[in-house]
Amino acid sequence: MRSKATARDVAREVGASLATVDRVLNNRGGVAPEKEQRVVLAARRLKLDRALDFRAARTLRIGIFVQPPSNPFHAALAEAAECHNRGPNPFNFEFSVLHVDPGAPNCTARTIREIAGRFDALIICAAEDPEIVVALRGFAATDKPVVALATDFGPDVLHIHVGPDDYRAGMLAGHLMGRFLSREGGKVLVVAGMSLMVGQRQRREGFRAAIAEGFSAIQIVGEVESGENGEKAGLLVARTLSRHPDLRGIYNASADAAEIAEALARVQDRGRRVFITHGLTEDRRRLLRAGAIDAIIDQNPELELRIALEALAERFGRLETGPETTITPVCIHTCENC
């Protein structure tokens, strides 16, 4: 029978002193982060009992950039971060939520530069603005990881992207719209939140591709941009309805659902119009059950943050194997399954 591993075995494995291994495993600090990572991974690999529930001594501070709570998806991300801080926290990460104005990317970029020295990693859900890209590139150049949620910053920034395949999510919305409108088809409006949000742009591209490929009776009569402002989204939809009273469908690639539903409720024949949007919240669940929304495509922000956490834990050597994939699933909700 093979004997249990000991701290001496770990020391031999990583080429460290027994005193160093003891300091790491007993959370006494004073060990360089890189050496601490090697000790922890070796201890777990050797199945040392004390390492199985090991919590790293040094707290890593993670800044998470989200929009204000008026955006439900971002509110859910912020709440998930706060829940993590209150939970068991096996990787010893501490989240700090930083709210950003989606209409002021220069302020976001300035904040990234100002707080760079305070954080070991950043999680960000923001537009692919040139100033933000430059600021993130500078942060990543210091060998600190960046995780992007919802927006993939592409090759310009060394980062980990966590989120759904937005192009396919947009295609899913297009196929849903086509099936709701059936052979009759009709005019459809596309609502964007911010054109600089890569994820939203990919959704719109996927939606258009699905309509073009399979639903020739559907005509996309326009694409409007709300700037992530719900009131503006409602006004833009109302204006389009006045110009196109025969409008049959609205696809919202952003978060401004309630105000769009209100604009639809004010016109006749609401039942003839299809409204598809993203992000299931309690308010939208009620709208879905009331028939004010026909379908919601949800991407589960809590899951995205958990995967981001695991990816960072692997990056910092606090988890031997990270998530199998950083591409997250989406779910379709209608009044029947909400």
Model description:
- The protein has three domains: 7-52, 434 Repressor (Amino-terminal Domain), CATH 1.10.260; 60-164 and 301-328, Rossmann fold (3-Layer(aba) Sandwich), CATH 3.40.50; 166-298, Rossmann fold (3-Layer(aba) Sandwich), CATH 3.40.50.2300.
- The protein is built from 13 helices and eleven strands.
- It has helices at residues 7-14, 18-25, 33-45, 49-52, 72-86, 105-115, 130-140, 166-181, 198-214, 230-243, 257-265, 282-290, 301-315; strands at 60-66, 93-99, 121-124, 146-149, 160-162, 186-192, 218-225, 247-252, 274-278, 295-298, 331-333.
- The strands form two sheets. A six-stranded mixed beta sheet has the order 7-6-8-9-10-11, sandwiched between helices.
- Helix 10 (230-243) runs parallel beside helix 11.
Helix content: 40-55%
Task: Please state the structural category.
Answer: alpha/beta
Question: Which band does the percent of strand residues land in?
Answer: 15-25%
Unreliable residue runs? none
Q: What's the CATH C level of the largest domain?
A: Alpha Beta
Strand order of the largest sheet: 7-6-8-9-10-11
Please report the total strand number as a whole number. 11
CATH superfamily of the largest domain: Response regulator
Q: Average pLDDT value?
A: 90
Known CATH architecture of the largest domain: 3-Layer(aba) Sandwich
Outline: elongated
Overall radius of gyration: 24 Å
As for the CATH topology of the largest domain, it is Rossmann fold
Number of helices: 13
Number of domains: 3
Distance between the termini: 54 Å
Biggest sheet architecture: 6 strands, mixed
Order of helices and strands: HHHHEHEHEHEEHEHEHEHEHEHE
